[in-house]
Model the fold of this input.
Amino acid sequence: MIRDPTRWARLANVHVDPSAATRAREQALAAWEPLAAMMRPGRWFRSARYLDGPWPGAGPASVWGLSQPLAAAVALVRIGALDAATLGALAVVLEEYRMGNGYGPFPGDGTHYYDDNAWIGLDFVGVHLATGDPAPLVDATRVLAFLREGEHPDGGVHWVERRRSPRNTCSTAPTAQLALWVHLLTGDPEALAFAERCRSFLVARLRRDDHLYADNVDVDGTVDPAIYSYNQGTPVGMDVLFHRVTGDPSFLADASAAARASLTHFAADDRLWTGAPCFNAIWLRNLATLDAVTPLPGFQPMVEAYAERLWEEGRDPGTGWFTRGGIGRYEKGGVLDQGGVVQILALAAWPPGLVGDLV
Done:
């Protein structure tokens, strides 16, 4: 499964001082090892499954929980640390969650969450870019067709397939990103038009005066102003993609304003450290796409400092899980946050020429 046969225990005690990129690659691979152990192969009539964490009685990961280890595996394949066969194994597990064109939160659960499906659709784009296989792009296009069913007549994408669902940044912005990728990779003009409508809603209803993005707008029009790091990243990544499609510099100006505002916000009061790594990974990988096009002051030093703190303070040397030092977590943490940690550590090892293709 892993190209480099060095196991986590040895990687955790490397005494030489390799280059920063090599060290980051080794650390990201080491952080992957506990995630790899969560795979449970199918036996007899039971399908393969992926556990949500290392605790006793752990059940199958939610599809949201599975999306970030899959994104982590894509990152490791793209930096040359993991064999692409791992992506196929995770795809087999993911198929158990499929309900029509979309994916339920758990196998057999037919209630779709649109944000979950947006992350999965972006994962499919990542698999396609990592392997060149056209099948994941077909899957991404299929998921986008489902997400279009969640579009509100007045703009935005619902959070969940349920009456009186709010329209969220976490469902609308990554859906716009997926639509833009489908347009870039297939030329589909309807995907571009959908992305444009998503952006119009975000700017008009959820972008705050301070350039940060609020969480959601409810059915009665009330805006929840809560700030989460992933909601600050996806609009930035969206605008970088719009610039890539159109060449219009105003998109980079908007992306830069939002990115700078979020860097200021999360630098204060230790918010980055106490935030969930799964949210932070989405934020940082999107800001990295902007930084590759137009340098973002303070971004690289912040990522390096955060990655070092993750490794030195957050990692439990006995288990390989990142659970120490008061590190933030999403609910119980588990594979969802560990997947985020892998992505953050992999950022420092990302080949510069591929940064623009971070998904």
